[in-house]
């Protein structure tokens, strides 16, 4: 079972709602029309179930069907749903411009993260063009207490709030997973605040990531920008990459609304 399947089967997720969102996320990943058989295969759904979901989306004008190609594709209505959020999250293109500039200048994958419960979630990613790279899909969840993006996001929170979150995390961990050490986490976050950035190479084998808290919030939610790539490329350039990230944040987000 992959991470997306686990996410759909998480407590509190209605099965049909999870499957609908998985279809829309699959379109976002492929960015092309798809036939029923391909959708069912890639999501591991029974063909009849996938067809019923697609017909429901078609009836509500969220998906269009091409009778010639026998393919489905999302309509403009899907894109319009989050238009008001995009303006606030991406500062009308400034954040995307920042991410594109960082990819061009570093050659590494760049991600934008926000907190989602006990996870850091990548709401937007720009992939490196290199063959050996850190590949991330938008929507990917990472443990907030182990990832660089998570550390950067947590650094904006007071210690009392961190303690409450640690208790929540530990209550939800599987028995085989080691509990989060509250004192160690608070000490690590103190260092992140002091340095102004977070670095981690312990979450994904062979991958190092750097993250910096952005100087504004979207609807009261903190955001962090991150760079990820092979440790052999990222770690030796740590100081250089941090300086570059800070420079580009200053250039692209100058005059952006302050945290609110």
UniProtKB/TrEMBL annotation:
<keyword id="KW-0238">DNA-binding</keyword>
<feature type="domain" description="HTH iclR-type">
    <location>
        <begin position="14"/>
        <end position="76"/>
    </location>
</feature>
<dbReference type="GO" id="GO:0003700">
    <property type="term" value="F:DNA-binding transcription factor activity"/>
</dbReference>
<dbReference type="GO" id="GO:0045892">
    <property type="term" value="P:negative regulation of DNA-templated transcription"/>
</dbReference>
<keyword id="KW-0805">Transcription regulation</keyword>
<dbReference type="Pfam" id="PF09339">
    <property type="entry name" value="HTH_IclR"/>
</dbReference>
<dbReference type="InterPro" id="IPR036390">
    <property type="entry name" value="WH_DNA-bd_sf"/>
</dbReference>
<dbReference type="InterPro" id="IPR050707">
    <property type="entry name" value="HTH_MetabolicPath_Reg"/>
</dbReference>
<feature type="domain" description="IclR-ED">
    <location>
        <begin position="77"/>
        <end position="260"/>
    </location>
</feature>
<dbReference type="InterPro" id="IPR036388">
    <property type="entry name" value="WH-like_DNA-bd_sf"/>
</dbReference>
<dbReference type="Pfam" id="PF01614">
    <property type="entry name" value="IclR_C"/>
</dbReference>
<dbReference type="InterPro" id="IPR029016">
    <property type="entry name" value="GAF-like_dom_sf"/>
</dbReference>
<dbReference type="InterPro" id="IPR005471">
    <property type="entry name" value="Tscrpt_reg_IclR_N"/>
</dbReference>
<protein>
    <submittedName>
        <fullName>IclR family transcriptional regulator</fullName>
    </submittedName>
</protein>
<keyword id="KW-0804">Transcription</keyword>
<dbReference type="GO" id="GO:0003677">
    <property type="term" value="F:DNA binding"/>
</dbReference>
<dbReference type="InterPro" id="IPR014757">
    <property type="entry name" value="Tscrpt_reg_IclR_C"/>
</dbReference>
